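User: I'm designing a mutation panel for tRNA pseudouridine synthase A and want to avoid disrupting the core. Could you give me a predicted structure to guide residue selection? Please restate the sequence first so the numbering is unambiguous.

Assistant: Good idea. Sequence first, for numbering, then the predicted structure tokens:
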Amino acid sequence: MQRYFIYLSYDGAAYHGWQIQPNGVSVQECLMRALSTLLRRETDVVGAGRTDAGVHASLMVAHFDADSPLNTVLLADKLNRLLPPDIAVHRVRPVRPEAHARFDATSRTYHYYVTTAKTPFLRPYRCRLFRTPDFARMNEAAATLFHYTDFTSFSKLHTDVKTNNCRIMHAAWTQVDDVTWVFTIRADRFLRNMVRAIVGTLLDVGRGKLTIDGFRRIIEQKDRCRAGTSAPAEGLFLADITYPDDIFE
């Protein structure tokens, strides 16, 4: 048995998220169907995480097992021919038999894009802001995230995780062009809805509705009801996932 990592990207607009759902099409389902067709047997795929409905990925990683060694370049090409145009496979890599796309990841990076202008062609990939918030204040608030590990206040309620602790390594807004800003956040793991909840609450800071001390208190209260409204899905991209070198063959 040989295990492989698949590196892929997708436009999440048409999908009910990454994970297989009983009532809607998911990215995982499409990938499993394509792999099963090519390998001529039912093939399970395990992703590095799960993006919500409407969220995009410029990089997602998933693993699967094959009965025998595969030509990875040929497999990637055949997968791209089978998959819909909004899902693309970039690379297939052999890994150690025990390697796990989710549990072996050492960090994950998300980007959240906002624009202060009406942009018809980027509309599906940006959150539109109708006035410019104070990004300097938002960066001050974002810097306080490094002082905490329990992010219950930014987690979707009633999830099945054992802990709400995460280690945030980077969190900052940077300007892309005259009308576009991106929030980049990197951590060892993320909770359900965490990035969108953080962005929504930071925007409250930028609009003057919340002070930086108030932002701190929201984290410390460990209550999702205290935080801001989650930012819309279309601005969010899973952008990078890192692994230790020794899991690759």
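For picking mutation sites, this is relevant: Residues 27-39 form the longest helix (13 residues). The CA atoms of residues 63 and 234 lie 26 Å apart.
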